[in-house]
Write a structure and sequence with these properties.
It is built from ten helices and 18 strands. The chain is α+β, with helices and mostly antiparallel strands and 465 residues long. The chain folds into three domains: 76 residues, Immunoglobulins (Immunoglobulin-like, Sandwich); 96 residues; 223 residues, paralog of FGE (formylglycine-generating enzyme), CATH 3.90.1580. It has a five-stranded antiparallel β-sheet. 35% of the residues are buried.
Length: 465
């Protein structure tokens, strides 16, 4: 039997008292303090240090930007933006135009902000002004001009509902009648996606009690489907021009049908009336352009960066050309934009006191009838100079006109001046020396953006009588 060991007496461990409190009491206080500190750090400190609310901005008007104290934070698209507590100056903008302003007070919630978003909803009530509406209309037109260049969008394309946005904006601004403007917008439909967008916009306008009108739906669908047809009466080609001593030709004008039986909506027949006018025999030349830029340095090649920034030309402006008054070059000026050609006409008018301009499509078409049977120009050298009509109306260079390209205008019996829709592309006529003569005639309609330059496009002048 094993002998029992005697255990050594040990002094029991006793926690000392603190401030006269027994251990159980001060440990309870310590643990409670730690718990409270943790709760404070989690539930209160984040709100104290980073006070503010998540703010949601909404507006009946589409795509409104939000600026807080001078800094852009986002748009009224339903997103939440954290804004610090205090008073803030809020500005709302659309297309660079101020919609309205307000002072927003954000309080300072502190409890559980780390886990729960304290939100605040702000509704934006736009103040309708002519400037704001003009920007909404112009922006819609610009998008539609771009979208109309596509004949079919696939299901994956992120198409912006331009017509619907315009209708919602019109309703938000409290407009009562958008008949003329909506009609113009409707003339740019070229595909089913745009047409469906237009129909839904009409429903929005109807629901808001806003008066409107749109292009004929049957003809619009026929254009989209490629089945649009309009009868064209026979047109006499016996148009004569009177040669003038200064190199211009005089036309008496009149009422006639421009265009022919065509499935191309841009070349459908349309009745036009042209007042008497005079057209230059040839193109504006490099020497003419040298005189222009000498008097207007803004349009000099050396200023191309500013021209691009201002949207007046692209990077190919005067590419390969260096017009100079020291060289009397009779070669036609090219690689200039429509804006530049229009500026030339306005400068020449102010210098001479005579009204010069780009020919309208109808003026050009009438002049082309006087050149029937002339050979197609396959170079930049003038062709057809027998003294009875302008040179190189067919071939040579595509020629700028003062007529806007609006896809459904011919279907609606309209010809629209470029000044009426500054956002539109413009019509060019006549083909160029690189085109197949069999593929281009005087009814062919070419289209160019106003700021684009081309080595195959130039212009000639007309002047009023």
């Amino acid at each position: 039997m094993r002998k029992k060991k005697e255990l050594v007496d040990v002094e029991p461990v006793r926690l000392p008292k603190v401030l006269g409190m027994r251990p159980g009491k001060y440990l309870l206080i310590l643990y409670s303090f730690i718990i409270v500190l943790i709760l404070f750090l989690i539930l209160f400190l984040p709100g104290i240090v980073n006070g503010g609310r998540w703010v949601s901005f909404s507006s009946e008007m589409t795509e409104v930007g939000v600026i807080v104290d001078g800094s852009y934070v986002g748009s009224t698209s339903g997103s939440l933006y954290f804004i610090e507590s205090g008073d803030h100056q809020i500005s709302y903008i659309k297309n660079g135009i101020e919609v309205c302003t307000q002072t927003l007070h954000v309080d300072h919630p502190v409890f559980a902000t780390l886990f729960a978003r304290r939100t605040q909803e702000v509704t934006v009530d736009p103040v309708s002004t002519p400037e704001l509406y003009a920007s909404v209309y112009s922006s819609a037109l610009s998008y539609l001009v771009s979208y109309s260049g596509v004949l079919e969008y696939d299901s994956g394309y992120n198409y912006r509902p331009v017509y619907q946005n315009y209708a919602r904006d019109a309703a938000a601004m409290g407009l009562s009648d958008v008949s003329d403007d909506f009609y113009t917008l409707s003339l740019f439909v070229t595909n089913r996606t745009m047409y469906d967008d237009l129909v839904r916009a009409e429903e929005i306008l109807s629901s808001a009690g806003i008066s409107f009108r749109a292009a004929d739906s049957e003809m619009t669908l026929a254009v989209i489907d490629g089945t649009a047809q309009k009868d064209s009466p026979a047109v006499s080609t016996e148009v004569t021009a009177q040669a003038l001593s200064d190199g211009f030709f005089r036309y008496e004008g009149g009422t006639f049908t421009m265009g022919g039986n065509s499935s191309d909506p841009a070349a459908l027949p349309v009745s036009v009336t042209v007042q008497p006018f005079e057209m230059s025999r040839g193109y504006v030349t490099e020497y003419d352009w040298a005189l222009f830029i000498e008097a207007n340095p803004y349009w000099a090649k050396s200023n191309i960066a500013a021209l691009i920034e201002d949207g007046m030309a692209d990077e190919y402006y005067l590419a390969g050309l260096n017009p100079s008054t020291a060289v009397h070059s009779s070669s036609p000026i090219r690689n200039i934009s429509w804006y530049a050609a229009d500026a030339y006409c306005r400068w020449l008018s102010s210098e001479t006191g005579t009204d010069y301009s780009l020919p309208s499509e109808a003026q050009w078409y009438l002049a082309s009838l006087s050149a029937s049977g002339r050979p197609y120009s396959r170079s930049l050298i003038s062709v057809g100079s027998d003294g009875s009509c302008p040179d190189s109306l067919m071939g040579g260079l595509w020629e700028f006109t003062s007529t806007a390209y609006v896809p459904l205008s011919r279907a609606e019996g309209l010809v629209i001046d470029a000044s009426s829709i500054p956002e539109s592309d413009i019509i060019v006529k006549g083909g160029s020396y690189i085109n197949d003569p069999a593929a281009v005639n005087n009814e062919t309609v070419g289209v160019m953006q106003r700021s684009v330059t081309s080595d195959y496009a130039g212009f000639r002048l007309v002047r009023s009588i």
